[in-house]
Amino acid sequence: MTTSFNFKRDVLPHAIAVVIFLFLTAVYFSPVLFEDKALAQHDILQFKGGAKEIQDYRERTGEEALWTNSMFGGMPAYLIQTHFPGDWSGYIHKILTFDLPALAGNIFITLICAYILLVAMGMSSWLAIAGAVAFSFTSYNLIILEAGHNTKSLTIAYIPMVLAGLIYALRKNLWIGAALFAVGLTMNLHFNHLQMTYYMLLLVLVFAVVEIIFAVKHGTFAELFKRGLVLLVAAILAVGVNFGRLYTTAEYSKYSIRGKSELTAPNSGEKVGSGLDREYAFNWSYGIGETITLLIPDFYGGSSSAPLDTDSETYNAFLKMGAPPAQAEQLVQQGLPMYWGAQPMTSGPVYVGAIVCFLFVLGLFIVDRRWTSWLVAGTILSIVLAWGKNFEAFNYFMFDYFPLYNKFRAVASALVIAQITMPFLAVLALWKLINERREIKDLDKKLLISGGITAGICLLVWLFAGTASFVSAADQQLIQAQFPIDAIRADRESMMRSDAFRSLVFIVLAGGLLYFYVKNKVSATVAVAGVGLLMLVDLWAVDKRYLNNSDFQRQVVANYFQPTQADQLILQDKGNYRVINLPNPFNDARTSYYHKSVGGYHGAKLRRYQDLIDRHISRNNLEVLRMLNTRYAITGNPQQPVQRVPEPLGNAWFVEEVKPVQSPDEEIEALTMFDAGSTAVIDVSKFPVERRNFNPDSATINLVEYEPNYLKYEYQAPKEGLVVFSEIYYADGWQAYLDGEPVDHFRANYVLRAMEVPAGKHTIEFKFAPKAYTVGNTVSLVSSILLLLVIAGAVYYGVKKKPTEVPIVEKV
């Protein structure tokens, strides 16, 4: 029987939830929304530097460049900034976030997606609001925003919507669930942070295994299989909408540091494996003991640059050392390395909340095994993966053998699974307790046991904190700088003890409130509202340690990219050349804002270029800098901010001879001692150039027209010759033309382009028009249209026809 529409019941609660979420977002991000301030996000500033040439070209022409020469000598723009007009999912995001500015929009959509998941479960609006707060204000969500990982944040934000669609389709309305799943997955993929999507898929895999076991056990596998096929179609449509982005990323990954190396491992005859270097990938591994930060945030000191107040031991130690009060306050406020965990550094801990941990443990006792099985398994998997090199047996196996796992680094971020599963099970436990308190056997005892376990851990930490060492790898530098190391360690102990007591208090307050509800002393409304408010206060206060109003500034971008004296001196030269920033060449994209940089900042640069950095540029091989047309070096010295690089070879030049090699190893080694102006090193096993010697006397070549994706040269040569171009070789997209006719070009000097040319006066053009972009964008457009039609049809069918439903929760 169809229930008639009721505005008060069907719309008003959700409208109130949206208003509450907008209010919370507005309060937290008031500097962004009301004061025209921004956050100095490191990665976003680097992105703006690296994307400047791409954006300028788009604004000037209305087209996509797809290539930029502003970083690492030149690279595809796919993973920097490329628009796919065929992908309409960006409009969906704008609608769902009311087009709020970045940061505010990130948290708002996280709240919305978590709310959708909990409402899809059948929870009341108020309980779903409380649960959404638990999901959204996990400390990691705010910490990654401070660092500038906006796309990571948005990819995580849509995970609950994916789960909502998945669960709703399998347990209730197949068609509405499938539509919701398609939208959630489309948006999750839209932001192209594939590592976060990968972790989501691991969680879905765990969920699928549990569902299959349950279905086989209860004889419902055929129904599960049917619904699974519909979800598969929804997933294909989501992938189709994002196909342009995924296809170009997949193509580029083969040639990036995520792909297979062509060099052999040192002192062996074996190829270096595909994917990232293991040491690099596991550099950021969560310590095994560090996992307790899920319950006690500053157990390991919080941040690698944490400010202290004037009540701290360190402040008083500075006073005793003779520092004036103002100077002592400045020293402790500027941030000290309070973190003493296993990672090289950190901006803050992953803290899911003391109350969430308490309710999570309670969920183990009272929530149905069908839910706890995959949520607990997902949590354990998340924690173990985050341990990385601290749990080698499992994680090195995963890295070496599990599909695609070796493409990702910073494995500590695997805790994003736990920050989904732990609040989910916690809210399920709260829902179960509120709805079925009279049906749960020994509920008061289970409540006390859960509180006793979590509060007991906090109490033990509070009592015995002094037994820890509080020694950090950074301490030696502090000692050398004559910082009061004993006082700093005492403050680390104080932070641990203080947060242990803090978590203990929140657990006692929430547990006491729920105990009173179980004993019928307070109403369900008071219990839910009280626990929700306590979770908000708990998480909000910790979040503000790492992202607060003082972090926001005016004119962030303008100030960061204010041209320096070095920039102004170099920009007087209107030619086409490259610049190297010597103080920080390979972790800085600010240089790319104004210049074509030899360096840059990107997590997936071309592997051959990384080889060149490792073997030659970092060792100051002048011939390599010359062949890259490096004309200026930024020194970082105020007295001489810029130096000319001796005799850069220009945009292109004729060479006298070919030095043939037979492998990539020989090719890169040959650059150690060679004259780049006269010799071209060519791997003839891949590019069989027959002629070895040329006479370039009186031959000239000049770059006469430049765009990021188009280069035009004019040359004149009395004889046939071989030209080397100071441009990065990338076969999948760059096509060469001689007098308008397509011609072959090949690779020289390990990373550059080269071409044999006839005598006479001719024109050479290079055009970057990769088929992957054209094909991918077309598939995205078709899929966007299909997705909208399918969603509309699924919603109509799901509402109108009311297909058979399997209750989501027989027993939670």
What key phrases describe this protein's structure?
single chain; 812 residues; alpha+beta; four-stranded antiparallel beta sheet; transmembrane helix; Uncharacterised_YfhO
Short description:
Keywords: Membrane, Transmembrane, Transmembrane helix. The protein is of the alpha+beta class and about 800 residues long. Among the domains are: about 285-525, no CATH class; about 650-770, no CATH class.
Structural summary, described in words:
This protein has 812 residues and is of the alpha+beta class. Among the domains are: 284-524, no CATH class; 652-770, no CATH class. The strands form six sheets. Strands 11-12-18-14-15 form a five-stranded antiparallel sheet, with no helix packed on it. Helix 9 packs antiparallel against helix 11. The protein is globular, with a radius of gyration of 30 Å. The protein starts with 6 loop residues before the first helix and ends in an 11-residue tail after the last helix. The model has no long low-confidence stretch (mean pLDDT 93).
